[in-house]
Records
---
Amino acid sequence: MSTATKHEPAFLKALSGQTLSTPPIWMMRQAGRYLPEYRELRAKAGSFLSLCYNPEMAAEVTLQPIRRFGFDAAILFSDILVVPQALGQKLWFVEGEGPRLEPVADATRLGEINERADPDLLAPVIETVRRVKTSLPQETAFIGFCGAPWTVATYMVAGRGTPDQGPAKALFGSDPALFQQIIDRIVEASIDYLCAQIEAGVDAVQIFDSWAGSLGADDFERWCVTPTRRIVDGVRARHPKSRIIGFPRGAGRLIPRYVAATGVDAVGLESDIDRAFARDEIQSLVPVQGNLDPLVLRSGGPELEREVEAVRAAFGDGPFVFNLGHGILPDTPIAHVERLLAAVRA
């Protein structure tokens, strides 16, 4: 039975299990480079990390897509790698290439990493949450987030994103005990971080496991499902009514197992998942979120109209949040986003 009330934002009603005639909508990376107002503020900030750690600017960036489009939810502007940085790992961004960290690939390097995250380093992010919360319209929900332990660990071990997550796989194959210690630290830091976001005002949190699909079934259970369950349990121990969304990107037919074992309230769907399977085997368990292809949104035109209708037809008879299957692409025309919103809300 749904615990939602009529006073809740539509996004939270959907998370609570209500089927709505018009699904709530937001987009992953909705605050980003496709917006001219974002690009202007990003240039003023000087660097991506400076933007993340400036509460005034980060709050403004979080609010920009709400003002322009009226999405049903805002998502905190930050990055999943602030957690390893708060654990003491050096982090920087290379323009045009992405994040870099000093790799943690042996016991010596792990010894240089703190066992708990430094709350002072994350304090500016939590201040951003407070600022956004006071500025959001009452009908707009607020989402916080963290990276899942497996995905964060792949960056910590390799020092950068990799096409196959090979360095992390090599480490858990050769020294699973060491890899488990890395996972353990991410789990504990993520619990503290998400709880701090909830206490500062977010209405729900999402756990992004961008590389979940790179794991086989047994490794998926050990390095994706089990650590995520620990985060869910840890957050709920402090905030029993917290709403938690999982996004095990690429996990496909392993998602029903993920949902059952982790205890998440809802789950995100990538673009290429079979929609009939997702409706019958996943949406029957929890509300779902997704799964429009960002490439289709970028292209626009009749294909966008058809795909919006197909997504709504697949999931509209159950609890559902309209979203993309991954983040919006930087060169997506604003007019296409406007058309998407009009089609979803028609």
Note: The mean pLDDT is 96.
---
Amino acid sequence: MSGASTAPKTLLYSLYCGVSALIAPLAWRKVAGKLRDYGLPEERVRERLGHASLPRPAGRLIWFHAASVGESLSVLTLIARMGERDPAAEFLITSGTPTSAELIAKRMPPRCRHQFPPLDTGAAVDRFLAHWQPDLGVFVESELWPQMLVRARTAGCPLVLLNARLSDKSVAGWTKRPATARFILDQFALLVTQNQKTAANLQAMGAAPDRIRPGSNLKAVSAPLPVDQDALAEVRVSIGDRPVWVASSTHEGEEETVLEAHKAVLKQHPDLCLLLAPRHPERGDAVEALIKDAGLSCARRSKGVLPGPRTQVYLADTLGEVGTWYALCPLVFLGGSLREIGGHNPFEPMQAGAAVITGTGHYNFAETYAELTALGAAAEVRSAAELAEQAAKWLGQPEAFQAARDAAAQFISRQSDQLDKTVDALLALLPDRRP
């Protein structure tokens, strides 16, 4: 499979390069200011100009570039798997935010290092490439910087677009500029998509069909969330044999619907406990007030209180414990979805063995939820009445609930199998081992 660029440079790309050079000083002041405000040393700030703060390791170097915290963390499992398969490979991750750098540093696989990416200007990108000389470049999801792509490919680095995901708006924008779309996509030797819809969109935009292949959603194969076994045992003893369900990552305007649904389910399961974990724990006071206004009894974790035999809502307004709650209870409503918020990662509860209920406002995971609901691994609701009906169904019909959990587990297993195929495809693109 050839990764050589064949499409000619376009006028739009040439204009982009010219404009990038003009606005580079302004862009530099902005990004440098943010990194300095975070307290980073100057040598790390200058990474955005392509000045490396670490030496290049000997041997073959695989470079991953990701934009967000979620994208950055999603590649760590893949890097670990690749490192196991090729013990001589070295890895570089670039991401733009100090938060992502901090989190990556805590979970860094062996033989891996982090740098901030160069600004997308000719000088910064060339400086970065001259130092690191990557043997393979992997761009995650939709983080496409034109000069970074073109100059890396010109330097002889084969490129991969991994976990490709394009919004309908993005596709519409690119199809209005077909020559430029073909030129950018032609930089990639391989495009690994999350789903068939993205594969079809990429082909319609001009990508060569023989370079497109299906892959797993990397977030589905990320390491499971941590579980505090002591806290899990403590809460489990406190709740006893009472039925429980979890409402996780709820946002302002959603708790009222969840509490209304809980009150309805209590009529069928009067000893039911709702474990309510708001997305932003600092909203604990406001959420506690909503619980009391709903006429429900509440115990609040941030105050060190455990649920008692009559606690109807356990308010888990703490950070970093959601993995423990998924281990406690496999019936999960995932917030950020009853309003048009975009939804949250359904793979985290599913990795813990849960089946998921979601609202309809999950546009960031639309394709994923479409597949999950079709498989029966997730259920979609639109109101408090529908949420109560679905929760009551899974509480009252163990066979149906287990079938949903089995479907979720099978989906995760298939994603893991697909990850191995992706590893094979990436390693196949590496050139012969460096001396």
Note: The mean pLDDT is 92.
